[in-house]
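Bug #77: duplicate submission created two jobs. Keeping one. Sequence:
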Amino acid sequence: MFFTFYHIAAATLYTALSLYFLRQLIKQQVPSGHLLLIIIGIALFLQGIGLYKGMVLSDGINLAIHNMLSLVIFSVNTLVLVSSLRKPLHSLFILLLPLSSIALTFSIFLEHLHLTSDVNHKAYISLSIGISLHILLSVIAYSLLFAAVLQALLLSWQNYRLKHKHIAGITKHLPPLQTMETLLFDLIWVGVILLTVGLTFGFYYIDDVFAQHLAHKTILSVIAWAIFVTLLCGRTFRGWRGNHVIQWILGGFSALMLAYFGSKLVLEVILL
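Kept job's structure:
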């Protein structure tokens, strides 16, 4: 009940902000930065309350798919919001706000499915410190790499607009391409470092990372890690950039998304 109420409130704010962004894009005007960040902060506060009520139970932590989906969106928005106070990252909300609205709506729907089913989908009840750190670092890494995907898409759009000499509206208010690209690889570097540490904790603290219910997560996570490491090596030693970089980012993130949500989607939704 609390999960649904607070998530509906947060989704409503995300939707309203998405429409506001769309209106400003149509009018070729830049959104009001301070007002935008304040309202996003309120939406995050509401979502955080609902997430806490949904995840932290008297007998443990509920890591069902609707909670994890909301947690990732909450983490991404929080990281981008805090980072945008020091770096020009608030432009990511052009893509992040509508995605947040859709994701929270889907999360509410999934929570309703769980409440109306006879199956208990609590993935973890009692967590050790090591496994807790593994999950926490993995979610933060996933969030940073998700932000990197959005940054890559925005960079590609900005590059296209500049090549075709469409520099009016929001485009002229974005940071220079070089700055945008630097921010993109800052996100990837930090995300890969945290993913590396998170995977290390997982290999160390989980008894059998290749058990039947974990094998695909482990393999896909390692594949995603290898893709991002290859990308960073290509960037450092070969100077990769442009669409080539975006393809590698999308490939790595796709593997990571399947690792995190693939089995949960099958077990908790398709086979519900």
